[in-house]
Amino acid sequence: MSDSDIMIIGIAGGTGSGKTTITRRLIQNFGSEVSVIHHDNYYKAHHNMPYEERAKLNYDHPNAFDTDLLVQALKDLKQGKTVTCPVYDYAIHDRTDKTVTIRPTRVIVVEGILIYENRELCDQMDIKLYVDTDADVRILRRIVRDVRDRGRSLESVINQYLSTVKPMHEQFVEPSKRRADIIIPEGGHNRVALEMVMERVRAHLNSAAKP
Question: Is the whole-model pTM more than 0.85?
Answer without folding.
Answer: yes
